[in-house]
Amino acid sequence: MLEAVIRALIAICFVALAVFLVLWVLAELGLGLPPMVVKILWVVAVLLVLLYLVRLFRPHWGGWFP
Length: 66
What we know:
mainly alpha
């Protein structure tokens, strides 16, 4: 279980790094996105991480979580 949690933390760091690098490269190329689009991209990244965490911990929650 500890190995899975560490792997999940590393995956979360990679997702955050990927989103940050994409936004940074676009800004350096002069294609800066509007602030609302940046917020939406971060929300999508957080939702992907939450989906990953739910799939990770679902077997340990018992039968009450669908």
